[in-house]
Write a structure and sequence with these properties.
Layout: E1 12-15, H1 20-33, E2 38-43, H2 51-63, E3 68-71, H3 78-82, H4 94-107, E4 113-115, H5 123-132, E5 137-139, H6 141-145, H7 149-158, H8 165-168, H9 184-193, H10 195-208, E6 213-216, E7 222-225, E8 275-277
Parallel strand pairs: 1-2, 1-4, 2-3, 4-5
Antiparallel strand pairs: 3-8, 6-7
Helix pairs in contact: 1-7, 9-10
């Protein structure tokens, strides 16, 4: 647990993302602090698999809690964010910023103890987040417990809970369907499993004149390749294992833990009113 020298803990907020890691992080938090003190919060993007609602109900029953669902009312889903003309960049994807990060910033208070689902294979990411967000009291229970992805998913399965559909389809994370940070192999899998999503993103790339994937050209330089031209054998997503370090992860950050530190004075609030549903 990471706290400042004069900090007192107010609320205990666990950011639940409908994935395996955040679920077991929530379970550990409930065991450590008690369910009367922990708030489980989910940022709804409007673009995840519909089976997540079933998974949420199962987790609420298993852990005997109710997840607080928040949503940015400005956007119906991530496609409305992308339609503004920006798909992804070095600091992450705009969908994460609008649908998750701004929502988190609007909900959090300066004295919250915030719980995140970084696992034991993501110590580096957790350290970078803690360094670049030193105004946040961050706690990483999975790292503290030494739990890795395979351990996490096994705990859920052993509890008799069916994993979210995206895991069962072979995806390494339970992200939105059609993640712009997925990579060529991921998108070739989307092409097979969700052809309508593949076609929609391909059309959006053409509309915005932006390609989200890269491929090595004849001169061995990485160049952008549009989905309409993406070779069907490009990428090796099907070969990756659960402990593969290259797996994509959205959560609340989408790579934004690498950003420069932000300055916060007392309680930071974004100019956004949250849509809340229980």
């Amino acid at each position: 647990m990471r706290t400042g020298p004069n900090w007192k803990i107010g609320r205990i907020v666990c950011w639940w993302s409908a994935g395996g890691s955040s679920t077991i992080a929530l379970k550990l938090a409930l065991e450590k602090f008690g369910k009367d003190k922990v708030i489980a919060v989910y940022c709804d993007t409007g673009s995840e698999h519909y089976d997540n609602k079933r998974f949420q109900a199962d987790i609420e029953k298993w852990l005997d809690i109710k997840v607080l669902v928040l949503k940015n009312p400005k956007y119906k889903d991530v496609w409305e964010v992308w339609d503004k003309g920006y798909l992804t960049g070095p600091a992450g994807a705009p969908c994460t910023g609008e649908m998750k990060r701004k929502v988190r910033n609007s909900f959090e208070l300066y004295d919250d103890l915030q719980i995140f689902g970084y696992d034991a294979d993501e110590v580096g990411r957790a350290k970078r987040f803690a360094t670049n967000n030193n105004e946040v009291m961050a706690y990483f229970p999975l790292i503290e417990s030494g739990l890795k992805k395979v351990d996490i998913l096994n705990q859920i399965s052993n509890a008799g809970i069916v994993l979210p559909m995206m895991y069962r389809l072979g995806y390494l994370n339970n992200n939105c369907i059609g993640c712009v940070k997925g990579g060529a192999g991921y998108w070739n899998k989307i092409r097979k499993d969700f052809p309508d999503t593949f076609e929609r993103m391909s059309n959006l790339e053409i509309k915005l004149d932006v390609a989200i994937n890269k491929s090595y050209a004849g001169d061995k330089k990485r160049k952008r390749v549009f989905l309409k031209d993406l070779p069907e054998d490009l990428g090796r997503y099907k070969e990756l294992g659960l402990n593969e370090s290259t797996r994509i992860s959205c959560g609340l950050f989408c790579g934004q833990e690498d950003e420069q530190p932000r300055i916060r004075v007392k309680i930071r609030k974004m100019n956004i009113k949250l849509k809340q549903a229980i």
